[in-house]
UniProtKB/TrEMBL annotation:
Alphabetized PANTHER family for the sequence: CATALASE, CATALASE-B
Protein name per UniProt: Catalase
Catalytic activity: 2 H2O2 = O2 + 2 H2O
Binding of heme, residues: R113, R152, F201, R399, Y403, R410
Keywords linked to the UniProt accession: Heme, Hydrogen peroxide, Iron, Metal-binding, Oxidoreductase, Peroxidase
SUPFAM superfamilies hit by this protein: Class I glutamine amidotransferase-like (SSF52317), Heme-dependent catalase-like (SSF56634)
EC numbers: 1.11.1.6
Family affiliation: Belongs to the catalase family. HPII subfamily.
Active site: H116, N188
GO molecular function ontology, one term from the record: metal ion binding
Length: 741
């Protein structure tokens, strides 16, 4: 038996401290060497390749010295900024530190992706509206041009085996197989990012990933290292606030916005240029889970998002998004209304620059093989087509390095473009030869340019023959520096704008998210430091989170900004199509089943997905009047449904006794199956529309739900109840139940 730790035996420190020494609130400033390991930590024995003891101490294999260095031991004076030609760039190719740091980060995981490992993909088609032709010559944006696409949705932090519904940023990556080459729009469901410069990308991901000593917690940011980093690196405040909002836990991929994050440059056929930001707008509107739903789903159905995507495509309820752009003048300042367009931690409110639709994405087919398609698809922000160019955003510059490195490690060599899912849908003649996994059989003897032995082929194209030509943007004369422009220094105005733009229920959820996440941290100093960040965003937000943590609320360290709220940032108040909404219809098989059929048929006619919930699998009703059951009292939970209808009071099913289902151990109320009382109570707490007929009001009373409460649709029969319930669904939830207008 292992010897008990005497500190714990004597009521000593609670286990779970992330480091061996408690941190202080200020960032450490006095140089010191690496801290020793914790008492409970020990490495492998120091033996040679043949098993012979070396006699060396375990610390001889650890990193040493107080100074940050390159892998070759050269000391560094800055690791927050890429080397640029002046503060605004562009980033210089000679930045060996950026290259080394990002290259090593790209190769940390084998073989799954370092980030975005957990994903789901589908095939579809993009239809150009033709509305972008004045600013962009890209052929796939022309009117009525149809382009095949592959889309991959993902979470950022978790491994391939993590849950779908964790609080995290989501990837929204689209591969357009255009006639002019492959174009990849590699975005997220949040329009801003944690960092302004790609040289910091390894840092933010290292902070968000599980602690390296224990590999926990998985797929979440509710731990010390994440909050230690973002509380010290306050440019992360805006993205963090979005993640703590309902945007961090989408209802489904088909109800999730997508953003290109960066500012891109579009080039017209006449040579004119404009700066743009890309937006994906879901046709079903933006909708999110509440936190309890996300937690339940992590256990009930950790594959919820990918299952939802696969099921709706299989059912023919094809998800759709409009691609839109915000358009800005291409000025030397690359700014709009005082907002620096090269700062990826900033957005431009839609009230200042409306999103202009330029095309429609429809997902029409699931993958045949997850590995061959979703796992092997390789995106790269440098996969561009004529008409779309990059800007000097230093985060974008680093991504142009990073993605190719990633594919070389993950997909075994430089020929990843030859995998079926990655192959361009246009002729390729690249003069690239050999390498791992080369599947093309090249002919000719002269893979170089110029040549005469192969008749001069391949020839260089000109702009008039479809060549990709970079926009000749002037680069100002400047010194080589590792700095950021002054416009990057404001870290709190836009987070405050986001907070002020939220409805009251959304603010409640943000407060609860911060309180939960910081409450999972061990170190009080990390919590105190993050409260200081929140104080600079809003005193009410800070005070309420501080109250939940049992800590005093600090005063703001900077003057509070006074931005105009942006209503477009809120999810509350709109009305959206009900296509694909899931309606659970609960029946115990007694009563008039024709009413259940009528509700089911009405839901199908409205484009919804009705699921009959019965006492057991198979059917309910007599043989001549049998009705198929899709879910049972044992398997149904509120999180799967957008709305619920009850055909009377469902009597206890046969498995409600005997302890086979722990949920059935609840006290029975008014002759109802206790699991259906639980189901109704959950749905009510989550703001779902509820309804019923044939005495269903007694079930409401059993669950403690007033019949006159907001979002309750009772009727004399099933059809009347469904009609009333259907009118509530376009708003996603019954928001007034949370106290919102």
């Amino acid at each position: 038996m292992a010897e008990q730790n005497p500190a714990h035996a004597a009521g000593g420190p609670v286990p779970g401290r992330p480091g061996s020494v408690a941190p202080q609130v200020p960032e450490p400033s006095e140089p010191g060497g690496p801290l020793p390991p914790k008492p409970d930590q020990e490495g492998p024995e120091t033996v040679g390749p043949t098993g012979q003891p070396t006699g060396s101490g375990q610390d001889r294999r650890a990193q040493g010295g107080p100074w940050l260095t390159t892998a070759q031991g050269t000391r560094l004076y800055d690791t927050d900024h890429s080397l640029k030609a002046g503060p605004r760039g562009p980033v210089l190719l000679q930045d060996h530190h950026l290259r080394e740091k990002v290259m090593h980060f790209d190769h940390e995981r084998i073989p799954e992706r370092v980030v975005h490992a957990r994903g789901a993909g589908a095939h579809g088609v993009f239809l150009g509206y033709g509305t972008a032709t004045e600013i962009c010559k890209a052929g796939f944006l022309a009117k009525d041009v149809e382009t095949p696409v592959f889309v991959r949705f993902s979470t950022v932090l978790g491994s391939r085996g993590s849950a779908d519904t964790v609080r995290d940023t989501r990837g929204f990556a689209t591969k357009f197989y255009t006639d002019e080459g492959t174009f990849d729009l590699v975005g997220n469901n949040i329009p801003v990012f944690f960092i302004q410069d790609a040289v910091k990308f390894p840092d933010v991901i290292h902070a968000g990933k599980p602690h390296p000593d224990r590999e926990i917690p998985q797929a979440q940011s509710a731990h010390d290292t994440f909050w230690d980093f973002v509380s010290l690196h306050t440019e992360a405040a805006h993205h963090t606030l979005w993640n703590m909002s309902d945007r961090g836990i989408p209802r489904s991929y088909r109800m999730m916005e997508g953003f290109g994050v960066h500012t891109f440059r579009m080039v017209s056929a006449s040579g004119g240029t404009a700066l743009v930001k890309f937006h994906w707008k879901p046709k079903l509107g933006v909708h999110s889970l509440v936190w309890e739903e996300a937690q339940l789903l992590g256990g009930v159905d950790p594959d919820f998002h990918r299952r939802d995507l696969f099921d709706v495509i299989e059912a023919g309820a094809f998800p759709q998004w409009e691609l839109g752009v915000q358009v800005f003048p291409d000025t030397p300042e690359q700014a709009f209304e005082g907002i620096d367009l090269l700062d990826s931690t900033k957005l431009v409110p839609e009230e200042l620059s409306p999103v202009q639709p330029i095309g429609l994405l429809t997902l029409t087919a699931n993958t045949k093989n997850f590995f061959a398609e979703t796992e092997q698809v390789a995106f790269h922000v440098g996969h561009l087509v004529p008409g779309i160019d990059v800007t000097d955003d230093p985060l974008l510059a680093g991504r142009l390095f990073s993605y190719l490195d990633t594919q070389i490690t993950r997909l075994g060599g430089p020929n990843f473009a030859q995998l079926p899912i990655n192959r361009p849908h246009t002729a390729v003649n690249d003069m690239l030869r050999d390498g791992m996994h080369q599947t093309a059989v090249h002919t000719g003897v002269a893979p170089y340019h110029p040549n005469s032995l192969d008749g001069g082929c391949p020839f260089l194209a000109g702009a008039q023959t479809g060549a990709y030509v970079e926009t000749p943007v002037a680069v100002p004369a400047a010194s080589k520096v590792r700095e950021a422009p002054l416009s990057y220094a404001d870290h709190f105005t836009q987070p405050r704008q986001f907070w002020l733009s939220m409805s009251e229920p959304e603010r409640e959820h943000i407060v609860a998210a911060y309180t939960f996440e910081l409450g999972k941290c061990y170190e009080q100093t990390v919590k105190e430091r993050q409260l200081g960040v929140l104080a600079n965003i809003d005193p009410v937000l800070c005070a309420r989170v501080a109250e939940g943590l049992g800590l005093p609320a600090p005063e703001a360290a900077v003057p509070l900004a006074d931005p105009e709220p942006s209503p477009a940032l809120s999810q509350v108040g709109g009305a959206w199509p009900v296509d694909g909404r899931t309606v659970g219809i609960v029946t115990d098989g007694t009563g008039d089943l024709s009413q259940v059929r009528a509700v089911r048929d009405a839901a199908v006619a409205a484009g919804m997905l009705p699921l009959v919930i019965g006492p057991s699998g198979g059917t309910v009703g007599s043989d001549g009047d049998a009705l198929a059951v899709q879910r049972t009292f044992a398997t149904a939970r509120s999180v799967e449904y957008d709305a619920l209808l009850f055909a009377g009071v469902p009597a206890p099913a046969a498995d409600a006794a005997g302890g086979g289902d722990a949920k059935a151990a609840l006290p029975q109320a008014d002759g109802a199956d206790p699991r259906m009382v639980l189901l109704l109570g959950e749905a009510y707490r989550h703001g779902k529309a509820l309804g019923g007929w044939d005495g269903a009001v007694r079930l409401l009373e059993a669950a403690g739900v007033p019949a006159g409460a907001e979002g309750i649709a009772l009727g004399s029969d099933g059809t009347e109840a469904f009609d009333r319930l259907a009118r509530m669904l376009p708003g996603h939830r019954v928001w007034r139940r949370f106290g919102a207008d």
